[in-house]
Amino acid sequence: MANMREVVLTRALNEALHEEFKRDDNVFLVGEEVGGVFGVTRGLDRRFGDKRVRCTPISEAAFTGLAVGAAVAGLRPIVEIMYLDFVTVCWDQIANQAAKLRYMSGGILKMPLVIRGQQGNLSREAAQHSQQIEGWCAQVPGLKVVMPATVEDAKGLLKSSIREDNPVIFVEHRGLYGLKGPMPRGEYTTPLGVAKVQREGSDITVVATSVAVQKSLGAAEKLAGQISVEVVDPRTLVPLDTETILASVRKTGRLLVVHDAPVRLGFGAEVVRAVTEEAFDALQAAPRVVGGANLPMPYSSVLEDACIPSEDDITQAIKQVVES
Amino acid sequence: MKPTEQQMKEMLRTMLTIRGFEQTACALYMDNWESGNFLGALHSYEGQEAVATGACACLRDDDYVFSTHRGHGHFIAKGGDVKAMFAELLGKEAGCSRGRGGSMHMFDPEKGLMGGNGIVGGGIPLALGPAFAANYRGTDQVTVSFFGEGASSQGVFHESLNLAALWDLPLIFVCENNRYAVGTPVSQGISVPNVSVRAAGYGCPGVTVDGDDPVAVYEAVSEAVAHARAGNGPSLVEAVTHRYSTHCMVMQEGREQSELDEMNEHDPIPRFEQYLQENGIISADEVQALKGEVSQLIEEAVAFGEDAPFPDPATVADGLWVS
């Protein structure tokens, strides 16, 4: 593919930021030690200056509130939350202010705001640095929730999120930061609210998010020749492209949902709800959800691994649904 | 800086309008209550008129105000439309927030009115935003964040004061110390004698003024506004005032009658009228004429709100997102 090149996912996010900073002077970034830590914001400060790349004190509520207020005043802020677990200390600004001000104003105000950061596990940082926040955010009407799973989508979705006039929670997974994959050359955007079939298949639909997409693709590859697995990546949880999910289930007749977030009251339950309400007749087997344990994340590597669905767990679950 | 005589006359009009609005709104609330129609939480600004009036008289249309749950006074003082306020209280489509916000969430960004807030202290960090935007764009706009003394015990107050001072944001923190955080007296809520001393912890000016005197409020806030417009960063102005009513409508609280009687002596409106007349700024006839005009404005605004249609339920999702 001549129009593609291989890059790591952090590079894709970094290019999205550089391009959108260049495109629109109203775009600025606030956060703790931005420019460092994971490399997503690398080079922005040198290129665009400290007026547009603002390192803040450790005051998430204040700088998130600042961004919400700057958005309604016409700027286009990006907030970096170093670990998305830390939304707990600025949750009022996200859930009560960013999500609601436009609606409460009768639709007068605009909220062009992106709150982004990384979450997940694999770095063995225990319960306060290993959570999945997408379900918390998806429960708050007014927020859009975006979760890229591939290099190509990471760039395209971040660019769309920055151009979006509504508040977006952009959820990155640190386990994907080193992922290498093809990315189109030049500028492009990927629309919010449109799912992508990451792999076509005919026996079962696996709906997966973020890093679970990669694990599900691995499981699908392992089962190739025995079970034909279709992997659907919603890419945005809110708004959710249920049409693409329903079309896939109507084709395959089976559904498995996979995510790292705790399974209880999670995104998987919501997908199963939508599918059983809309496409019950198409189901040839009971749908299943494989998700994270309903536990604070433990520290020890063997315990952490036991809390998150692995590629093998997904492989087993696919077999169980297909063979049931 | 002192207000001009013309400004002071307008300030009296504003105070009378706020008082008239609140008294009428409370009566309307009780009428609705008695007929089983609950108009949410209504927090009366009665008694605190001098604070919003003195502070907003220092501002231009393009300056921003972030208000509180007790925000009707700020809305009126910054030039909001009283008709749209009554319509909003009554949940009508013609309301300033199309019936989606209610008493605590009135917006008019054209007048710099960026809304009240249902979360005590929740609006303080928001006010950092337009102040940041003014510096970002190189304008000389300022932002005022109103909040009560209760909110000064919230973490966001301290984070926001620190960030505003660190980044020299053109922001004026106006603390309305009405001496009660819901029902908790200030003596049980704050570790220092005055909220204004908290400014010293962040390296910015802090001052306490008589919040029942609109001229004193104007003088302090205009100085803070000049300081901010000149690029010198934020200030904290504490206006000590009196809340006449309970925290919100139909809420009982145990204030002593002697305290309520004492508050009448602080009523900022007769006091300001007397000041203006003694200094020959306004005549008794002019005051009467002003009161007549305000009564008429309120009467027409209530009628407008009552006659306005309710929103069409089919439009309930309107305004959630920019499509």
What is the secondary structure topology, with strand pairs?
The complex is a heterodimer of chains A (324) and B (323).
Chain A: E1 4-8, H1 9-23, E2 27-31, H2 44-48, E3 53-55, H3 60-72, E4 76-83, H4 91-98, H5 101-104, E5 114-119, H6 134-138, E6 144-146, H7 151-163, E7 168-173, E8 180-184, E9 196-199, E10 204-208, H8 211-223, E11 229-233, E12 236-238, H9 242-252, E13 255-262, H10 267-279, E14 288-292, H11 301-307, H12 311-323
Helix pairs in contact in A: 1-7, 3-4, 8-12, 9-10
Chain B: H1 5-34, H2 49-56, E1 64-66, H3 72-77, H4 82-89, H5 123-137, E2 143-148, H6 155-166, E3 171-177, E4 180-181, E5 184-185, E6 206-210, H7 214-229, E7 235-240, H8 257-265, H9 268-278, H10 284-307
Parallel strand pairs in B: 1-2, 2-3, 3-7, 6-7
Antiparallel strand pairs in B: 4-5
Helix pairs in contact in B: 1-2, 1-9, 1-10, 2-7, 4-10
Describe the protein in words.
The complex is a heterodimer of chains A (324) and B (323). With 324 residues, chain A is α/β, with parallel strands linked by helices. Chain A has two domains: 4-184, Thiamin diphosphate (ThDP)-binding fold, Pyr/PP domains (Rossmann fold); 196-323, Rossmann fold (3-Layer(aba) Sandwich), CATH 3.40.50.920. Chain A is built from twelve helices and 14 strands. Chain A has helices spanning 9-23, 44-48, 60-72, 91-98, 101-104, 134-138, 151-163, 211-223, 242-252, 267-279, 301-307, 311-323; strands spanning 4-8, 27-31, 53-55, 76-83, 114-119, 144-146, 168-173, 180-184, 196-199, 204-208, 229-233, 236-238, 255-262, 288-292. In chain A, the strands form three sheets. In chain A, strands 3-2-4-5-7-6-12 form a seven-stranded mixed β-sheet, sandwiched between helices. Chain A has a five-stranded mixed β-sheet with strand order 9-11-10-13-14, sandwiched between helices. In chain A, helix 7 (151-163) links the parallel strand 6 and strand 7. In chain A, helix 1 (9-23) runs parallel beside helix 7 (151-163), helix 3 packs parallel to helix 4 and helix 9 packs across helix 10. The longest helix of chain A is centred in the first third of the chain and has 15 residues, at 9-23. Chain A is globular and about 60 Å long. Chain A starts with a strand and ends with a helix. Chain B has 323 residues and is an alpha/beta fold. Chain B has one domain: Rossmann fold. Helices cover 43% and strands 10% of the residues of chain B. Chain B contains ten helices and seven strands. Chain B has helices at residues 5-34, 49-56, 72-77, 82-89, 123-137, 155-166, 214-229, 257-265, 268-278, 284-307, and strands spanning 64-66, 143-148, 171-177, 180-181, 184-185, 206-210, 235-240. In chain B, the strands form two sheets. In chain B, strands 1-2-3-7-6 form a five-stranded parallel β-sheet, sandwiched between helices. In chain B, helix 1 (5-34) runs antiparallel to helix 9 (268-278) and helix 4 crosses helix 10. Chain B starts with a helix and ends in a 16-residue tail after the last helix. The relative contact order of chain B is 0.17. Chains A and B meet through helix 3, helix 4 and helix 5 of A and helix 5 and helix 6 of B.
